[in-house]
Amino acid sequence: MLSIARLQEFDLKYIPGLGPARGDVLKKELQISNAFDLLYHFPYRHVDRSRIYSIRELQSSMPYVQVRGEILSVETIGEGRGKRLVAHFSDGDGVIDLVWFQGVKYMLKQLKLHKPMLIFGKPSVFGFRINVVHPEISEEGDYVYQSPGVMPMYHTTEKMKRAGVDSTRIRESIRTIFTRMGHDLEETLPTWIIEQEHLMSLGDALFQIHFPDNADLLRHAKYRLKFEELFYIQLNIARYMSERQRKYYGYKFPGVGQPLLQFYDECLPFELTGAQKRVVKEIYADMKTGHQMNRLLQGDVGSGKTLVALLAMLIAVGNGYQACMMAPTEILASQHLESLREMLGTMDVRVELLTGSIRGKKRKALLEDLKKGEIDILVGTHAVIEDWVEFPALGLAVIDEQHRFGVAQRAKLWAKSDMPPHILVMTATPIPRTLAMTIYGDLQVSVIDELPPGRKPITTLHHYDDRRVSLYQSMHKQLSLGRQIYIVYPLIKESEKIDLHDLEQGYERIIAEFPKMTVCKVHGKMKAAEKAAEMQRFVSGEAQIMVATTVIEVGVNVPNASVMVIENANRFGLSQLHQLRGRVGRGADQSYCILVTGYALSEITKRRIDIMVKSTDGFAIAEADLKLRGPGDMEGTQQSGMAFNLKIADIARDGQIVELVRNIAIQVVKDDPQFDLEKNEILWKRLTELRNITKNWGAIS
Ligand code: ADP
Ligand code: MG
Q: What burial class does residue 114 get, using C-beta atoms within 10 Å of its C-beta: 0-12 exposed, 13-18 middle, 19+ buried?
């Protein structure tokens, strides 16, 4: 039985054809430093090379083909850049030309005349003859020559290719490892799981993924490897959660307290939606257990998360603690401050704002009051979690728009008091279930799946950018009804200059087109105060049109705004478009979202625009986004090292496996709370190894 440790000790430099120099390249380029790593470098596809063609059969329309034969003669043709090496190759039935444009000198030395060989490449026609450019060649001693079959293809980089580590070299090196070591490999999953789930053994799976005997075995192999990869992520989360439950107690709030009741009776401006009521109950149920709450609140834009947050904070305040609420930008933080104060009316609950731009005496006084426990709710930006901000007893931290807050920042809250505060993370970017299970797997999830009554669904339209006349007409119409309009431009760091130029141009055009209107302008390059002032002009209704970059993406609330025009809409992600669209449709009027693009759109972009036009369901959109773009691009996932760096599983496509392994992982931890059952020995050992070698695994929170 071969152990993983032995494979890990197997240095690649001992593999013929690799050696120290190429081993170094593998390490630098792909972080592959031993035989075990190399076996986990999975092929991105397989090519069936079981068929060998005769030259007479070849046609230029064929994909890759294989021919056995020998080189009759070699010549170099042309000069300078056009110089190429041509080998006339025959299988006895006919002649084709093998052509090299690069490495002519090297190939000239390598090629042997009248030696049997197997060539593999894409046929094309040049003149009257079939050509194969840069074919892969194998000779009698090579394994491929003996028994060509299903061949694995591997990703390589430019640097690797230049060092002679191409897909073939990787394939042969992996073959060498199996030939030397066999594939009777020590298991990384316990027998009971393998039997219960009918999994292929690790050794077989690793062998079959590289050199499958047939498509069925390849599928089994992939399943086993995906299962294992996703399972350990879930086991890590499950174990972490159970450890934390045991280690960390949380504040116990035995009652909802007087402020909440008073608020309910005197201040609540409207009836809560059914979903809001349910979620508040879920939150309170956590707060009275004596364990720390870690809850993710998902709710589409406009679903009323702020009010839920306020109710939760009032529970903390009513129990004699403070609460804080963090927003990703100063503008949002001050909007939250305003709406909280407005909702609270004359109630005796003190709410204050702390941001980076509150300095000097004002800040000092604020911090003093906070320390004395005179402030009940502190609203702010990242500033709130700085070390110099001292709460006497922080009972609840609300984090709005999660994706701007890193995992490490969340963890900083722990240090604020002896006990960790309850945590409520709110996001309007709905995260597909299976992704949430992976990234926020340790959070309990609450969902507001109902919008406050009386909202008209937003109408979304796609407009080509040369049809501005009709676009401006509809804008004129809305403005004449007294409504306000957002016009949003993308702003991406890499093309910042061009983007800002677009925005300025658009601004000038709007001023010219709407001379009677007041137009304000907001973008991320402006100073915070300037930005806030411009934004305020729109919020107060002084300006009817706002031209902006995505700084308005999250949270801003102007119910009178009924039109959202998104320029270069093709450059935004689906979730981002959905967020932007959520800025309108907040009042009782019919609202519009107009996606403006040019004519040249890729297939995927067309599909994305189509989804936006047809759907207003944030979850459906997020699901579609995940499928179209993959998890690496999803908002909110960048900080998580776990969901990507996946070697074989794909969160978007392997959702079923995610669900399955999560259930098994939870069950394992439940059955084996001390992590010491003999039947699970392999699991805990392997998990420890993985925690040691996988970045970010130790740091989930
Ligand atoms: P989001 O979930 O996007 O943060 P907000 O909390 O900003 O949404 O709420 C959007 C708007 O809906 C606000 O103007 C808020 O006052 C209003 N609202 C919230 N809950 C209700 C409700 N139950 N009934 C009517 N309006 C509500
Ligand atoms: Mg909000």
A: exposed
Q: Are the C-beta atoms of 617 and 557 separated by less than 8 Å? A: no
* Beta-bridge mates of residue 276: none
What's the pLDDT tens digit per position in 294-323? 898 988 878 899 999 999 999 999 999 999
Residues 6+ apart with CB under 8 A from 435: 626, 631, 634, 637, 643, 651, 652
Cα-based torsion angle of the residue sequence 29, 31, 33, 38 in order, rounded to the nearest 10 degrees:
-90
Do the Cβ atoms of 379 and 340 come closer than 8 Å? yes
Residue 522 CA, ligand 2 centroid: distance in Å: 20
- Residue 444 binned pLDDT confidence (cut-offs 50, 70, 90): confident
Structure tokens at 544: 């009817």
Burial of 100 (0-12, 13-18, 19+ CB in 10 A): buried
Strand partners, 169: none
Q: What is the pLDDT of residues 38-62, one digit of tens each?
A: 999 999 988 888 889 999 999 988 8
Q: 135 lies in a domain?
A: yes
Residue identifier of the C-alpha nearest atom 27 of ligand 1: 452
Please, which residues have CB less than 5 A from ligand 2, an ion? Answer: 555
Element containing residue 410 per DSSP (H, E): helix 407-412
CB atoms closer than 10 angstroms to residue 664: 18
- Asked if 172 and 107 sit in the same domain, the reply is no
Question: In terms of residue numbers, what domain contains 508?
Answer: 459-615
Longest dimension (CA), the chain: 98
Tell whether 113 is covered by a domain: yes
pLDDT-based confidence at 700, cuts 50/70/90? very low
- Ligand 2 centroid – CA 394 distance (Å): 22
The domain tally of the chain equals: 4
Q: Which residue minimizes the CA distance to atom 25 of ligand 1?
A: 452
Q: Write down the pLDDT at residue 405.
A: 58
By three-state DSSP, how is residue 638 classified? coil
Question: How remote is the CA of residue 112 from the centroid of ligand 2, in Å?
Answer: 71
